[in-house]
């Protein structure tokens, strides 16, 4: 198996003084905790090393536990996996299929230059090689804009315009395709970093909704995150032992993303105290999420429907003079507002947005 340099980097342990137990390096003589065969990876938070087969067993068990504990999926339920072409989304798709779920994928072409072209290729090859169904949506072709243009036209940071577009289109794809549930590849590192940011700001609305399962209703699908008990490094290892080729490059728009900084901070804590990340996030779910349930209810009750596309939205509308329906502002969701501004804007090349963002903090 050919291991690319970046993939090996992703397997580098967060603990600085330990080397990854991977064939060809000094730690490769360590043995799998389960079968005593040569280990391919050390996992300090489990205080153990694993061979390829038992790493897979660990990953399957963690996903099964997450699905069961948080009641993510029913047996036989059709699942739509939000696929980016990166390791986490391909791994979650692979794991769900491996565990017997009927899982199809959906990929959104975001128009982020070569990065998007390549990412789409990884997603399509993964599906083709396994005979899986991948739905594709192209922002430029179908909605007349791309992420760099949306960032410029709406004066939002790219990840904000991108995230809003993706959430909306994943929901719509699930609705149109008759899927009750959308699965994403958010892993433990992602969730812990988001939790860290939300906690630093004590953002109660976001904290209240930071759950591995968000229930659906007649307007939008349930959202599930089956990888919340697994780390980025474990997912990189899963992809390597399963022979999954994935987009290794980071999105060029991610530079300066606050979450990357939060991840580095948490990795430093994890290096000193393995298991801290898991306990930070999983204990939040056990101890704090129930306390925040009341705030969550308020958010759900505040939703209305977009007057253009019918999607649920927190946006408000207003009535005209004297309470009449004429002259008021319509209730328009964030996605429709992005489309309105961006489709009318001339296309903006990726480089223009990334260059402007260089050296500037969000
Ligand atoms: S694709 Fe989109 Fe990510 Fe790129 S612009 Fe940001 S949100 S970083 S997952
Ligand atoms: Zn083993
Ligand atoms: Zn809308």
List keywords for this structure.
single chain; 362 residues; alpha/beta; Rossmann fold; 2 domains; six-stranded mixed beta sheet; two-stranded antiparallel sheet; 10 strands; 48% helix; disordered N terminus; disordered C terminus; binds Fe4 H S5; binds zinc ion
Number of strands: 10
| Element order: H for helix, E for strand | HEEHEHEHEHHHEHHEEHHHHEEHH
Instruction: Quickly count the helices.
Output: 15
Let me know the CATH homologous superfamily of the largest domain: HUPs
Number of domains: 2
Ranges with pLDDT <50 over ≥5 residues?
Answer: 1-5, 14-27, 358-362
What sort of overall outline do the alpha carbons produce when their principal axes are compared? Answer: globular
Kindly state the percentage of residues in helix: 40-55%
Report the portion of residues in β strands: 5-15%
| Proper CATH architecture of the largest domain | 3-Layer(aba) Sandwich
Sheet/helix structural class: alpha/beta
Which value, in Å, is the CA radius of gyration? 21 Å
- CATH C-level class of the largest domain: Alpha Beta
Q: Sheet with the most strands?
A: 6 strands, mixed
> And the CATH topology of the largest domain?
Rossmann fold
What topology does this entry show?
Elements: H1 5-11, E1 41-43, E2 48-50, H2 52-69, E3 78-83, H3 87-98, E4 102-109, H4 113-130, E5 134-138, H5 139-143, H6 147-154, H7 158-177, E6 181-183, H8 188-200, H9 204-209, E7 213-214, E8 222-224, H10 232-242, H11 258-272, H12 276-288, H13 293-301, E9 304-305, E10 312-313, H14 334-342, H15 350-357
Parallel strand pairs: 3-4, 3-6, 4-5, 6-8
Antiparallel strand pairs: 1-2, 7-8, 9-10
Helix pairs in contact: 2-10, 3-10, 6-7, 6-14, 8-11, 8-12
This protein binds Fe4 H S5 and zinc ion (ZN) (2 copies).
């Amino acid at each position: 198996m050919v291991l690319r340099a970046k993939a090996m980097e992703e397997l580098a342990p967060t603990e600085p003084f330990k080397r990854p137990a991977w064939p060809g390096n000094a730690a490769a003589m360590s043995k799998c905790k389960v079968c005593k065969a040569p280990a391919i990876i050390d996992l300090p938070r489990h205080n153990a090393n694993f061979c390829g087969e038992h790493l897979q067993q660990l990953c399957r068990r963690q996903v099964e536990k997450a699905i069961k504990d948080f009641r993510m999926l029913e047996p036989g339920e059709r699942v739509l996996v939000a696929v980016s072409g990166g390791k986490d989304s391909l791994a979650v798709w692979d794991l769900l299929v491996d565990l017997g779920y009927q899982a199809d994928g959906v990929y959104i072409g975001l128009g982020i230059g070569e990065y998007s072209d390549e990412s789409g290729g990884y997603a399509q090859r993964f599906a083709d090689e396994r005979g899986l169904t991948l739905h594709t949506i192209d922002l430029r072709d179908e909605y007349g804009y791309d992420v760099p243009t949306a960032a410029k036209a709406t004066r939002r940071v790219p990840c904000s315009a991108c995230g809003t577009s993706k959430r909306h289109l994943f929901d719509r794809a699930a609705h149109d395709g008759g899927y009750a549930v959308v699965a994403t590849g958010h892993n433990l590192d992602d969730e812990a970093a988001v939790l860290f940011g939300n906690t630093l700001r004590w953002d109660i609305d976001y904290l209240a909704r930071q759950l591995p399962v968000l229930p659906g209703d007649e307007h939008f699908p349930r959202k599930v995150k089956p990888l919340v008990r697994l780390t980025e490094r474990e997912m990189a290892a899963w992809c390597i032992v399963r022979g999954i080729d994935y987009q290794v490059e980071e999105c060029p728009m991610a530079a300066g993303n606050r979450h990357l900084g939060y991840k580095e901070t948490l990795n430093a804590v994890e290096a000193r105290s393995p298991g801290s990340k898991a306990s930070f996030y999983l204990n939040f779910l056990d101890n704090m999420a129930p306390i925040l349930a009341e705030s969550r209810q308020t958010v759900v009750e505040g939703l209305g429907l977009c007057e253009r596309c019918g999607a649920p939205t927190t946006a408000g509308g207003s009535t005209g003079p004297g309470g009449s329906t004429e002259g008021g502002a319509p209730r328009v969701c964030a996605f429709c507002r992005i489309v309105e501004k961006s489709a009318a804007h001339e296309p903006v090349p990726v480089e223009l947005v990334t260059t402007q963002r260089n050296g500037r903090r969000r």
